[in-house]
Amino acid sequence: MAIAVLLFTHQLQPWHVYIATVVSSAFSTVQRPAYAAAVPAFIPAQQLGRTSGLRRVASALAEFAPPLVAGYLVFSVGLGRVILIDVVTFLVALGTLLAVRFPSESRPELDRQQSVWHVAQGARAGWRYIFARPSLRSLLVLSSITWFLGVPAEMLLTPYVLATHSAAVLGWVGAAISAGLLAGGLVMTAWGGPKRRIVGILGFECLVGVCLVVIGVRLPPALILLAMFVQFAALALSDGCGDALWQTKVAPAFLGRVFAIRDVAALCMVPLGTLLLAPLAEFVLGPALTPGGVLASNIGHVIGVGPGRGIGLIFMMAGVFNILAVLVAWTRPQVRRIDLDIPDVET
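User: That's the sequence. What structure does it adopt?
Assistant: C-alpha coordinates below.
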Protein backbone atom coordinates (compact mmCIF):
# COMPACT_ATOMS: atom_id res chain seq x y z
CA MET A 1 0.00 0.00 0.00
CA ALA A 2 2.86 2.36 0.79
CA ILE A 3 4.40 1.72 -2.62
CA ALA A 4 1.02 2.33 -4.28
CA VAL A 5 0.57 5.65 -2.44
CA LEU A 6 4.07 6.79 -3.38
CA LEU A 7 3.55 5.77 -6.99
CA PHE A 8 0.21 7.58 -7.42
CA THR A 9 1.55 10.72 -5.73
CA HIS A 10 4.59 10.64 -8.05
CA GLN A 11 6.98 10.34 -5.10
CA LEU A 12 8.25 6.81 -5.69
CA GLN A 13 12.06 6.51 -5.74
CA PRO A 14 14.26 3.43 -6.09
CA TRP A 15 15.34 3.62 -2.45
CA HIS A 16 11.69 3.32 -1.40
CA VAL A 17 11.55 -0.03 -3.19
CA TYR A 18 14.78 -1.14 -1.48
CA ILE A 19 13.35 -0.38 1.96
CA ALA A 20 10.03 -2.06 1.17
CA THR A 21 11.86 -5.16 -0.06
CA VAL A 22 13.98 -5.38 3.09
CA VAL A 23 10.95 -4.95 5.37
CA SER A 24 8.90 -7.46 3.37
CA SER A 25 11.72 -10.02 3.45
CA ALA A 26 12.17 -9.56 7.20
CA PHE A 27 8.48 -10.19 7.85
CA SER A 28 8.54 -13.19 5.51
CA THR A 29 11.26 -14.80 7.62
CA VAL A 30 8.91 -14.56 10.60
CA GLN A 31 5.89 -15.74 8.63
CA ARG A 32 7.49 -18.93 7.23
CA PRO A 33 8.27 -20.66 10.55
CA ALA A 34 4.97 -19.43 12.00
CA TYR A 35 3.10 -21.02 9.12
CA ALA A 36 5.05 -24.26 9.43
CA ALA A 37 4.33 -24.37 13.16
CA ALA A 38 0.62 -23.70 12.63
CA VAL A 39 -0.05 -26.42 10.05
CA PRO A 40 0.05 -29.42 12.47
CA ALA A 41 -2.72 -27.79 14.52
CA PHE A 42 -5.15 -28.41 11.64
CA ILE A 43 -3.72 -31.37 9.74
CA PRO A 44 -3.47 -34.99 10.99
CA ALA A 45 0.12 -36.24 11.17
CA GLN A 46 -0.42 -38.81 8.42
CA GLN A 47 -1.51 -36.04 6.02
CA LEU A 48 1.38 -33.63 6.66
CA GLY A 49 3.34 -35.00 3.70
CA ARG A 50 0.48 -34.20 1.33
CA THR A 51 0.15 -30.76 2.87
CA SER A 52 3.85 -30.10 2.26
CA GLY A 53 3.39 -31.19 -1.34
CA LEU A 54 0.45 -28.83 -1.77
CA ARG A 55 2.54 -25.95 -0.42
CA ARG A 56 5.17 -26.71 -3.03
CA VAL A 57 2.58 -26.80 -5.78
CA ALA A 58 1.49 -23.31 -4.72
CA SER A 59 5.13 -22.12 -4.57
CA ALA A 60 5.87 -23.51 -8.03
CA LEU A 61 2.80 -21.83 -9.50
CA ALA A 62 3.77 -18.60 -7.73
CA GLU A 63 7.23 -18.70 -9.29
CA PHE A 64 6.06 -19.62 -12.78
CA ALA A 65 2.71 -17.95 -13.50
CA PRO A 66 2.84 -14.45 -11.89
CA PRO A 67 5.98 -13.23 -13.73
CA LEU A 68 4.34 -14.10 -17.06
CA VAL A 69 1.04 -12.47 -16.10
CA ALA A 70 2.78 -9.43 -14.58
CA GLY A 71 4.84 -8.88 -17.72
CA TYR A 72 1.65 -8.82 -19.80
CA LEU A 73 -0.22 -6.60 -17.34
CA VAL A 74 2.55 -4.00 -17.06
CA PHE A 75 2.30 -3.33 -20.78
CA SER A 76 -1.48 -3.70 -21.05
CA VAL A 77 -2.84 -1.90 -17.98
CA GLY A 78 0.24 -0.12 -16.56
CA LEU A 79 2.36 -0.42 -13.43
CA GLY A 80 -0.11 1.42 -11.21
CA ARG A 81 -2.93 -1.06 -11.79
CA VAL A 82 -0.51 -3.96 -11.33
CA ILE A 83 0.38 -2.65 -7.87
CA LEU A 84 -3.31 -2.20 -7.06
CA ILE A 85 -3.92 -5.82 -8.06
CA ASP A 86 -1.04 -6.77 -5.75
CA VAL A 87 -2.65 -4.84 -2.88
CA VAL A 88 -5.96 -6.64 -3.48
CA THR A 89 -4.27 -10.06 -3.35
CA PHE A 90 -2.73 -9.17 0.01
CA LEU A 91 -6.14 -8.12 1.33
CA VAL A 92 -7.65 -11.42 0.15
CA ALA A 93 -4.85 -13.34 1.88
CA LEU A 94 -5.30 -11.31 5.05
CA GLY A 95 -9.05 -11.94 5.02
CA THR A 96 -8.42 -15.66 4.66
CA LEU A 97 -6.10 -15.65 7.67
CA LEU A 98 -8.56 -13.65 9.77
CA ALA A 99 -11.18 -16.31 9.10
CA VAL A 100 -8.95 -19.06 10.52
CA ARG A 101 -9.61 -20.16 14.09
CA PHE A 102 -6.91 -22.12 15.87
CA PRO A 103 -8.04 -25.03 18.05
CA SER A 104 -7.68 -23.76 21.61
CA GLU A 105 -5.96 -26.95 22.77
CA SER A 106 -3.21 -26.44 20.16
CA ARG A 107 -2.05 -23.13 21.61
CA PRO A 108 1.05 -23.58 23.79
CA GLU A 109 1.52 -21.36 26.78
CA LEU A 110 3.69 -18.47 25.66
CA ASP A 111 5.77 -15.97 27.57
CA ARG A 112 4.07 -12.66 26.84
CA GLN A 113 7.16 -10.63 27.72
CA GLN A 114 8.73 -9.57 24.45
CA SER A 115 11.91 -7.77 25.53
CA VAL A 116 15.11 -8.36 23.61
CA TRP A 117 16.33 -10.50 26.50
CA HIS A 118 13.30 -12.77 26.38
CA VAL A 119 13.51 -13.07 22.60
CA ALA A 120 17.16 -14.09 22.94
CA GLN A 121 16.21 -16.61 25.61
CA GLY A 122 13.58 -18.03 23.28
CA ALA A 123 16.13 -18.43 20.50
CA ARG A 124 18.49 -20.21 22.90
CA ALA A 125 15.67 -22.53 23.92
CA GLY A 126 15.18 -23.49 20.28
CA TRP A 127 18.86 -24.28 19.84
CA ARG A 128 18.92 -26.27 23.07
CA TYR A 129 15.89 -28.26 21.93
CA ILE A 130 17.69 -29.32 18.74
CA PHE A 131 21.10 -29.98 20.28
CA ALA A 132 19.62 -32.04 23.09
CA ARG A 133 18.40 -34.48 20.43
CA PRO A 134 21.28 -35.96 18.36
CA SER A 135 18.93 -37.10 15.60
CA LEU A 136 17.56 -33.60 14.99
CA ARG A 137 21.03 -32.10 15.31
CA SER A 138 22.42 -34.46 12.68
CA LEU A 139 19.47 -33.78 10.38
CA LEU A 140 20.05 -30.03 10.72
CA VAL A 141 23.73 -30.48 9.80
CA LEU A 142 22.79 -32.60 6.79
CA SER A 143 20.27 -30.05 5.51
CA SER A 144 22.85 -27.26 5.89
CA ILE A 145 25.40 -29.26 3.89
CA THR A 146 22.93 -30.00 1.11
CA TRP A 147 21.94 -26.32 0.98
CA PHE A 148 25.60 -25.35 0.61
CA LEU A 149 26.14 -27.91 -2.14
CA GLY A 150 22.94 -26.83 -3.87
CA VAL A 151 24.17 -23.26 -4.26
CA PRO A 152 25.67 -23.98 -7.73
CA ALA A 153 22.23 -24.88 -9.07
CA GLU A 154 20.96 -21.41 -8.16
CA MET A 155 24.02 -19.18 -8.48
CA LEU A 156 26.11 -20.59 -11.33
CA LEU A 157 23.39 -21.96 -13.55
CA THR A 158 22.94 -18.83 -15.67
CA PRO A 159 26.62 -18.33 -16.61
CA TYR A 160 26.99 -22.09 -17.06
CA VAL A 161 24.17 -22.34 -19.59
CA LEU A 162 25.07 -19.10 -21.40
CA ALA A 163 28.70 -20.20 -21.76
CA THR A 164 27.73 -22.73 -24.42
CA HIS A 165 24.04 -22.15 -25.21
CA SER A 166 21.68 -19.34 -26.17
CA ALA A 167 19.46 -17.22 -23.95
CA ALA A 168 16.49 -19.18 -25.31
CA VAL A 169 17.92 -22.36 -23.78
CA LEU A 170 18.31 -20.53 -20.46
CA GLY A 171 14.63 -19.60 -20.63
CA TRP A 172 13.70 -23.25 -21.18
CA VAL A 173 15.90 -24.20 -18.22
CA GLY A 174 13.88 -21.85 -16.01
CA ALA A 175 10.69 -23.44 -17.30
CA ALA A 176 12.10 -26.92 -16.57
CA ILE A 177 12.91 -25.89 -12.99
CA SER A 178 9.38 -24.57 -12.39
CA ALA A 179 7.88 -27.67 -14.03
CA GLY A 180 10.04 -29.92 -11.85
CA LEU A 181 8.97 -28.13 -8.65
CA LEU A 182 5.35 -28.35 -9.76
CA ALA A 183 5.61 -32.04 -10.66
CA GLY A 184 7.35 -32.89 -7.38
CA GLY A 185 4.72 -30.99 -5.42
CA LEU A 186 1.88 -32.73 -7.24
CA VAL A 187 3.43 -36.15 -6.63
CA MET A 188 3.93 -35.33 -2.95
CA THR A 189 0.34 -34.06 -2.68
CA ALA A 190 -1.08 -37.27 -4.17
CA TRP A 191 1.36 -39.67 -2.48
CA GLY A 192 2.19 -38.09 0.87
CA GLY A 193 5.71 -39.53 0.86
CA PRO A 194 7.00 -42.86 2.19
CA LYS A 195 5.95 -44.11 5.61
CA ARG A 196 9.54 -43.64 6.80
CA ARG A 197 10.09 -40.03 5.83
CA ILE A 198 13.84 -40.14 6.40
CA VAL A 199 14.05 -42.63 3.52
CA GLY A 200 12.36 -40.06 1.29
CA ILE A 201 14.65 -37.26 2.48
CA LEU A 202 17.87 -39.19 1.88
CA GLY A 203 16.72 -41.00 -1.26
CA PHE A 204 15.59 -37.88 -3.08
CA GLU A 205 18.65 -35.91 -1.91
CA CYS A 206 20.80 -38.65 -3.40
CA LEU A 207 18.90 -38.23 -6.68
CA VAL A 208 19.61 -34.47 -6.50
CA GLY A 209 23.32 -35.29 -6.26
CA VAL A 210 23.13 -37.57 -9.29
CA CYS A 211 21.42 -34.82 -11.28
CA LEU A 212 24.11 -32.29 -10.29
CA VAL A 213 26.77 -34.64 -11.62
CA VAL A 214 24.83 -35.14 -14.87
CA ILE A 215 24.33 -31.39 -15.31
CA GLY A 216 28.07 -30.87 -14.97
CA VAL A 217 28.75 -33.11 -17.97
CA ARG A 218 28.78 -31.43 -21.37
CA LEU A 219 25.33 -32.39 -22.66
CA PRO A 220 22.90 -31.30 -25.38
CA PRO A 221 20.19 -28.87 -24.19
CA ALA A 222 17.43 -31.51 -24.04
CA LEU A 223 19.34 -33.60 -21.50
CA ILE A 224 20.20 -30.54 -19.41
CA LEU A 225 16.50 -29.67 -19.28
CA LEU A 226 15.63 -33.23 -18.26
CA ALA A 227 18.27 -33.23 -15.51
CA MET A 228 17.05 -29.87 -14.15
CA PHE A 229 13.46 -31.10 -14.19
CA VAL A 230 14.34 -34.26 -12.25
CA GLN A 231 16.59 -32.39 -9.81
CA PHE A 232 13.96 -29.87 -8.75
CA ALA A 233 11.21 -32.48 -8.64
CA ALA A 234 13.44 -34.48 -6.29
CA LEU A 235 14.10 -31.33 -4.23
CA ALA A 236 10.37 -30.73 -3.82
CA LEU A 237 9.87 -34.32 -2.70
CA SER A 238 12.83 -34.28 -0.30
CA ASP A 239 11.78 -30.95 1.22
CA GLY A 240 8.20 -32.16 1.54
CA CYS A 241 9.33 -35.25 3.44
CA GLY A 242 11.63 -33.08 5.57
CA ASP A 243 8.95 -30.60 6.58
CA ALA A 244 6.56 -33.40 7.51
CA LEU A 245 9.26 -35.14 9.57
CA TRP A 246 10.13 -32.03 11.57
CA GLN A 247 6.45 -31.22 12.11
CA THR A 248 5.76 -34.65 13.58
CA LYS A 249 8.88 -34.89 15.76
CA VAL A 250 9.14 -31.40 17.31
CA ALA A 251 6.90 -30.30 20.16
CA PRO A 252 4.39 -27.60 19.08
CA ALA A 253 5.74 -25.07 21.59
CA PHE A 254 9.17 -25.22 19.91
CA LEU A 255 8.18 -25.82 16.29
CA GLY A 256 8.24 -22.17 15.18
CA ARG A 257 11.66 -21.61 16.75
CA VAL A 258 13.04 -24.81 15.27
CA PHE A 259 11.82 -23.94 11.77
CA ALA A 260 13.34 -20.47 12.16
CA ILE A 261 16.66 -22.06 13.09
CA ARG A 262 16.42 -24.31 10.03
CA ASP A 263 15.88 -21.21 7.87
CA VAL A 264 18.86 -19.43 9.43
CA ALA A 265 21.13 -22.45 8.98
CA ALA A 266 20.07 -22.85 5.34
CA LEU A 267 20.27 -19.16 4.43
CA CYS A 268 23.76 -18.86 5.95
CA MET A 269 24.93 -21.42 3.42
CA VAL A 270 23.96 -19.22 0.45
CA PRO A 271 26.49 -16.38 1.01
CA LEU A 272 29.08 -18.91 2.18
CA GLY A 273 28.63 -20.93 -1.01
CA THR A 274 28.72 -17.75 -3.09
CA LEU A 275 31.98 -16.57 -1.52
CA LEU A 276 33.68 -19.94 -1.97
CA LEU A 277 32.30 -21.48 -5.15
CA ALA A 278 32.02 -18.46 -7.46
CA PRO A 279 35.71 -17.44 -7.16
CA LEU A 280 36.72 -21.11 -7.38
CA ALA A 281 34.89 -21.47 -10.69
CA GLU A 282 35.95 -18.07 -12.08
CA PHE A 283 39.61 -17.85 -11.09
CA VAL A 284 40.78 -21.42 -10.48
CA LEU A 285 38.87 -24.16 -12.26
CA GLY A 286 37.81 -22.08 -15.26
CA PRO A 287 41.37 -21.17 -16.33
CA ALA A 288 42.60 -24.66 -15.41
CA LEU A 289 40.14 -26.24 -17.85
CA THR A 290 40.93 -24.02 -20.83
CA PRO A 291 43.12 -25.43 -23.62
CA GLY A 292 46.63 -25.60 -22.18
CA GLY A 293 45.41 -25.24 -18.58
CA VAL A 294 46.82 -27.31 -15.75
CA LEU A 295 43.80 -29.65 -15.73
CA ALA A 296 43.29 -29.80 -19.48
CA SER A 297 45.51 -32.85 -19.99
CA ASN A 298 43.96 -34.98 -17.23
CA ILE A 299 40.47 -34.06 -15.97
CA GLY A 300 39.90 -32.15 -19.19
CA HIS A 301 40.16 -35.39 -21.16
CA VAL A 302 37.15 -36.69 -19.22
CA ILE A 303 34.84 -33.66 -18.90
CA GLY A 304 36.19 -31.52 -21.74
CA VAL A 305 37.85 -28.11 -21.88
CA GLY A 306 36.64 -24.69 -22.88
CA PRO A 307 33.95 -22.20 -21.78
CA GLY A 308 31.88 -23.31 -18.81
CA ARG A 309 33.94 -26.39 -17.98
CA GLY A 310 35.11 -24.91 -14.67
CA ILE A 311 31.51 -24.40 -13.57
CA GLY A 312 30.65 -27.85 -14.90
CA LEU A 313 33.30 -29.33 -12.62
CA ILE A 314 31.80 -27.39 -9.69
CA PHE A 315 28.43 -29.00 -10.43
CA MET A 316 29.98 -32.45 -10.60
CA MET A 317 31.93 -31.99 -7.36
CA ALA A 318 28.82 -30.67 -5.60
CA GLY A 319 26.86 -33.69 -6.79
CA VAL A 320 29.48 -36.17 -5.62
CA PHE A 321 29.76 -34.55 -2.19
CA ASN A 322 25.97 -34.41 -1.94
CA ILE A 323 25.79 -38.17 -2.52
CA LEU A 324 28.59 -38.78 -0.02
CA ALA A 325 26.85 -36.64 2.62
CA VAL A 326 23.67 -38.68 2.18
CA LEU A 327 25.56 -41.98 2.40
CA VAL A 328 27.38 -40.87 5.56
CA ALA A 329 24.06 -39.77 7.08
CA TRP A 330 22.56 -43.18 6.29
CA THR A 331 25.39 -44.92 8.18
CA ARG A 332 24.50 -42.97 11.34
CA PRO A 333 21.74 -44.74 13.30
CA GLN A 334 20.46 -41.51 14.84
CA VAL A 335 19.64 -40.28 11.33
CA ARG A 336 18.60 -43.54 9.70
CA ARG A 337 16.25 -44.43 12.58
CA ILE A 338 14.99 -40.92 13.38
CA ASP A 339 11.38 -41.66 12.46
CA LEU A 340 11.50 -44.89 14.50
CA ASP A 341 13.36 -43.72 17.62
CA ILE A 342 11.70 -40.32 18.13
CA PRO A 343 7.99 -40.66 18.88
CA ASP A 344 5.51 -38.44 17.07
CA VAL A 345 4.37 -35.47 19.13
CA GLU A 346 0.73 -34.86 19.98
CA THR A 347 -0.71 -31.85 18.16
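The CA atoms of residues 93 and 279 lie 42 Å apart.
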